[in-house]
Amino acid sequence: MPASIVSAIIEYINLFESHSINWSELAINSGSSLSINCFANKVVQAAQAFNKALFIKPDYHEALYNMGICLEKQDNMEEAIQAYSKALSIKPAYIDAHRSLSRVTKYKVDNPQISAVKDLLNGPEIQDEDRCKLHYTYAKMNEDLGDFNVAFDNYVAGGKIRKALLSYNGD
Questions:
Q1: Which residues make Cβ contacts (< 8 Å) with residue 83, sequence separation at least 6?
Q2: pLDDT in tens, 127-150
Q3: Is 81 exposed, middle or buried (0-12, 13-18, 19+ CB in 10 A)?
Q4: pTM summary value
Q5: Cα(70)–Cα(58) distance, integer angstroms
Q6: pLDDT of residue 26
Q7: 32 and 60 Cβ atoms separated by less than 8 Å
Q8: Nearest to 22 by CA among 44, 52, 43
Q9: HEC readout, the chain
Q10: What is the pLDDT of residue 29?
Q11: Contact 138, 117 (CB under 8 A)
């Protein structure tokens, strides 16, 4: 093997081992940019990028969440639920994952996510944008359970926060 090829391989290995490149970040950023314009062929490419990120870092909650979005857009709801759930097992307070999981789940009383969302909603350290998402999530859960008064109250609460965040005056 020529010396120039050997030195190039050694340089590449040294770069890889130095961790000067965060390969999982690179893969998820590639997937995220593809999933923004989620046309059918881009979703597949985005999913491939997220798979690369997960191969490098299997507990990467953001890659799991984004993979769930890709799977949901491909109407693969069971795998989307698994991806969102795994993201939440890694980061239980991941508000966007709770919100996305609520879109693809039909809730029953014994679902542990309901109490997790309720606890997060009652937490004092939640930003308004996240509190808004949690109200909508909790509303959807209660709608599924048939508790329409609680669902309505949470849709209204979320709407009030959303209105304030948008500085919207509908009067």
A1: 64, 65, 67, 68, 71
A2: 999 999 999 999 999 999 999 999
A3: middle
A4: 0.76
A5: 17
A6: 52
A7: no
A8: 52
A9: CCHHHHHHHHHHHHHHHCCCCCHHHHHHHHHHHHHHCCCHHHHHHHHHHHHHHHHHCCCCHHHHHHHHHHHHHCCCHHHHHHHHHHHHHHCCCCHHHHHHHHHHCCCCCCCHHHHHHHHHHCCCCCCHHHHHHHHHHHHHHHHHHCCHHHHHHHHHHHHHHHHHHHCCCCC
A10: 55
A11: yes
Tell me if 104 sits within 8 A of 123, measured CB to CB: no
Cβ contact 54:64 at 8 Å: yes
pLDDT category, 38, cuts 50, 70, 90? very low
**pLDDT for res 1:** 39
Lowest mean pLDDT among 13-27, 54-68, 114-128: 13-27
Structure tokens at 5: 């090829």
Q: HSE (CB half, 13 Å, CA atoms) of 23?
A: 13
